[in-house]
Amino acid sequence: MSEEELIKQWFEAFTEKYMRQIEQTVYHRVRNQAWVEDVIQDVYYRVWRYRKKMRLMERKPVEIYLRNIIRSAISDFYKNKDSQLILNSDILSFHSKTCGGAYTQPEHHIILQEYLKILEELSRQEKDILVMRILYNMGYKEIGAMYHIKETAARKRYERAIRKIRKKVKEIFPT
Q: Where is the RNA polymerase sigma-70 region domain (predicted)?
């Protein structure tokens, strides 16, 4: 058998053995079936990319390496989804009691631009935590698990990001 055939057999055995674990882990973290499939595809792509290295590992290191691949695929997905959501989300329809109506007037655009500038001043992790907490309704425990921090640390980082936003909003839009 050639090297490529052995690698293909290993990959088939790997997917058969770990497919259920990968799907459950990703679904538990993402919870949206359409997005789950995208993340799983990315996980399999990464496994295929590192197939030669993983094939030579023992069982336990492979499982640890797989967990790292899954975690980084989910994290990268949320980072990419974050930028897509800002552009394609309900922010652009921008309904508000004070503004009355949809996002059509120039002052709405100015307000939106100011909020996006405020978000740009946050660190990558703070933005990710805000997105996971607000848009995906993830708990502090789940967020902490993704960043390998305690639940209370995740909550504190979320609260710190909210305080930063409030402070900047008060500077820009004094009441």
A: 16-82, 119-167
